[in-house]
Amino acid sequence: MKVTKICCIGAGYVGGPTMAIIAQKCPQIQVTVVDLNAERIAAWNDEDVNNIPIYEPGLSEIVKEARGRNLFFSTEVDAAIDAADMIFISVNTPTKTYGKGKGMAADLKYIELCARQIARVSKSNKIVVEKSTLPVRTAEAIKSILDNTGNGVKFQILSNPEFLAEGTAVQDLLQPDRILIGGDTTEEGQKAIQALVEVYANWVPENKILTTNVWSSELSKLTANAFLAQRISSINAMSELCEKTGADVNEVARAIGMDSRIGPKFLKASVGFGGSCFQKDILNLVYIAKSYGLHEVADYWEQVIIMNDHQKRRFSGNIVKTLYNTVSDKKIAFLGWAFKKDTNDTRESAAIYVADDLINENATLAIYDPKVSHKKVLADLDYLETRATSVNAERVQSFGNPYQACEGAHAVAVLTEWDEFVTYDWQKIYEAMQKPAFVFDGRNILDKTSLEKIGFVYQAIGS
Ligand code: NAD
Ligand code: UGA
C-alpha cells in the first residue's frame, strides 16, 4: 500500500517538526497536522515563519519550504482523519495528576480520545501510528477501541516512537540513528509496517530502519530514555563525590568516556536533567514494573529520579550556603531558564526548581534567557503552586539583556548551557555586581581560570 495522505494529531514539539520533515522529504505525500489548540495552529500558520510556536534551529526554513505545498496545519481534526490513509498520534502523555497511579503512571486520556475520534470518523481502512511515548501494551487498548466501532473499517496499529532531542530536532530527524517500527506479525501487520518503512525510506537508509513487534517497540522507547537519564544521574552522583575528594568531574567523564564500551556522550554533569520526558517516562517505567510486582526493577529505576531531584536541591542549597547562609533579599541572576540550550521549552527545567528553592529563602531573582519570556517564567513557577502568584511576580523579574540581569546581583547562576553565555564580557558583569561576586555554574561551561582572574568566586558542579 502506498501512503498518499498523512494526518498527524498533535502539533507539538514532536508532531510539528516530525511532520515538517516528512513533508519536506516526501513531496508526493500530503501531510496535515491537526490540533485542538487553535492558538498553536494559528502560530504554525503565521505568515511570518519566524513566529511558528516551536523554536528549533533550521525548522522555520523547512516549514517555509513545505507549508502550503504538501504541509498543512489545521484545527479540523475530523476532516483530516477522514481523508488520511495513515494517522500519527502525537499527543501529550503527561504523568497522571489524579486517581490510581497519580504522580507515576502516564495519563492516556488524550490517546484514548484520539482513538475514539478515529473510530468515530473513519469510513475507510487506516494505519494508526503511535508516535507518542506510551506504556508497553498501549496498542492493545487502542486496538480494542478501534475494533469495536461496528462500521467495518479495518485498522492496523504501528508503534513508531520518536527519538529526537529538542534543540537538535531537525538534525535528529534528517539523520536519525535509527527508525523503529513495531507492528503485528500477521500479514496485514507486515504490510502496514512496509507502508511506513517506505515513507521513511525517502531519506533514511534502509539499514537504519528497524522493525520489531509492537511491544518491543513501545518498551524500547521507555528503555532508551531510562538509559540516557541514568547516565546523567550516574555522572551527577559522581559530581558530588568529586566535590568532596578533589577529583574533577569533567576529567573523570573524559577518562571513562574514552572507554569505547562507555562512550563519551551524555556524561556532562549538570544541575540535573529537565525536559518533558525523562522524568515522566521513568516514572511510567517504575509504575509499570510495580504493576507487574517487579519491585527491585522499579526501585532500581526510581533511583535515577531520586538522584536528579537531589542534584537540583543540592545546587540551590549550595548557593544559599556559600552566600553566608542567607539569600534573603539578595539578588541572584539566572542565566538560562530553558531545560537545555537551543530550545524555548522549559518543561521540568531544573531552573524552575532552583528558583523555587531560592524564593522560599526570600531571594529576588533576575532572569535572562534568550528564548524564554517572562510570562513563561512566571507560569512555570505558578504551576508549582508553592506560593501566591503575586509573590512570584514580586520576587522574579526578567530582562531582555544579560548585563541588566546581572546588575547589582550578589551571584550569577548558570542554569542552561546556551553558547552565548561563554562569550559575554565577564569583566563588565563583574564590575556591575555586588562584591564578592559569585558564579555558580550549573552547566560547567565557563572558564574557571579566567573568571577567577577577574575576581569572581567561581563554583562549578563536580569540582
Ligand atoms: P506537546 O504537548 O508539545 O504537544 C501535544 C499536542 O497534542 C498539544 O498541542 C495538544 O493540544 C495536542 N492534543 C492533545 N490531545 C489532542 C486531541 N485529542 N486532538 C488534537 N490535538 C490534541 O507534546 P510533545 O512534546 O510533542 O510530546 C508528544 C509525545 O511525544 C509525548 O508522548 C512525548 O513523550 C513524546 N516525545 C516527546 C519528545 C520531545 O522532545 N518533546 C521527544 C520524543 C517523544
Ligand atoms: C531526550 C532524549 O535525548 C531523546 O532521545 C528523546 O526522544 C526525548 O528525550 C524524549 O523522549 O522526549 P530531550 O529531553 O529533548 O531529549 O533532550 P536531551 O538532550 O536528552 O537533554 C535532556 C536533559 O538532560 C537536559 O536538561 C540536558 O541539559 C540534560 N543533560 C543531557 C545533562 O545534564 N547532561 C548530559 O550529558 C546530557
Number of strands: 14
Shape: globular
Question: N- to C-terminal separation?
Answer: 58 Å
Q: So how many helices?
A: 18
| Average pLDDT number | 97
Bound molecules: nicotinamide-adenine-dinucleotide, uridine-5'-diphosphate-glucuronic acid
Q: Order of strands across the biggest sheet?
A: 3-2-1-4-5-6
Helix/strand/pairing category: alpha/beta
Strand and helix layout:
Layout: E1 5-9, H1 15-25, E2 30-34, H2 38-44, H3 59-66, E3 71-74, H4 77-83, E4 86-89, H5 109-121, E5 126-130, H6 138-147, E6 155-159, H7 169-174, E7 179-183, H8 187-200, E8 209-213, H9 214-245, H10 249-257, H11 278-291, H12 295-322, E9 331-335, H13 350-360, E10 364-368, H14 374-384, H15 389-395, E11 396-398, H16 402-406, E12 411-414, H17 426-432, E13 438-441, H18 448-454, E14 457-460
Helix pairs in contact: 1-3, 5-6, 9-11, 9-12, 11-12, 12-13, 13-14
The structure holds nicotinamide-adenine-dinucleotide (NAD) and uridine-5'-diphosphate-glucuronic acid.
